[in-house]
């Protein structure tokens, strides 16, 4: 997977994932990329260096410990994430709009089962209220898209 931004500024999948980690954690330490993406320190360092060279990340030393590298998105990095997020939202809207009405209950059930596998909720809970998906189908195109956070 390769993402482009601006005039040929390319971003690999690993680099994009690193950008998402930085966006998720204020005052992100480089070690957070190591932990979140299960990378070696040297791999994370190479990714961070490439992102900085492309103007997508800014690196600074921590005020408390100069050995710790703090990372922040530049405006170009933020723009890249926002444009990718918008493209994802557009694809999801298109998918939901294309679902035939008779397929919505099946899709809803399978999606609920899948989400339950990743949910810390008890098996008695149904998870997300997906039963009304068919009613929401028409209004989905006007709805704001999900905004990723540190926990989701």
Task: For the structure shown, list the relevant keywords.
152 residues; alpha+beta; 6 helices; elongated
What does this structure look like?
The chain has 152 residues and is of the alpha+beta class. The protein is built from 6 helices and 5 strands; from the N terminus they run E-E-H-E-H-H-E-E-H-H-H. The strands form 2 sheets. It has a 3-stranded antiparallel beta sheet with strand order 3-5-4. Strands 1-2 form a two-stranded antiparallel sheet. Helix 1 packs across helix 3 and helix 2 crosses helix 3. The radius of gyration is 19 Å and the shape is elongated. The C terminus is likely disordered.
The residue fraction in helices comes out at 40-55%
Count every beta strand, where a strand is a DSSP E run of 2 or more residues: 5
Number of helices: 6
Q: What composes the largest sheet?
A: 3 strands, antiparallel
Shape: elongated
Distance between the termini: 22 Å
The average pLDDT value, as a whole number, equals 77
The succession of helices and strands, N to C, reads EEHEHHEEHHH
Order of the strands making up the biggest sheet: 3-5-4
Low-confidence stretches: 4-8, 122-152
């Amino acid at each position: 997977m390769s993402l482009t931004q601006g005039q040929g500024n390319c971003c690999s999948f690993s680099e994009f994932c690193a950008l998402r980690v930085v966006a998720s954690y204020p005052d992100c330490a480089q070690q957070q990329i190591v932990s979140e993406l299960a990378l070696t320190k040297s791999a994370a360092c190479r990714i961070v260096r490439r992102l900085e060279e492309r103007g997508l990340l800014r690196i600074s030393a921590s005020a408390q410990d100069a050995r710790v590298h703090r990372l922040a998105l530049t405006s170009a990095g933020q723009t890249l994430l926002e444009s990718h997020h918008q493209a994802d939202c557009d694809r999801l809207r298109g998918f939901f709009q294309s679902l035939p009405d008779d397929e919505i209950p099946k899709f809803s059930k399978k999606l609920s089962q899948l989400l339950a596998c990743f949910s810390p909720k008890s098996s008695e809970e149904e998870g997300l209220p997906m039963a009304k998906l068919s009613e929401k189908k028409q209004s989905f195109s006007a709805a704001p898209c999900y905004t990723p956070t540190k926990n989701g």
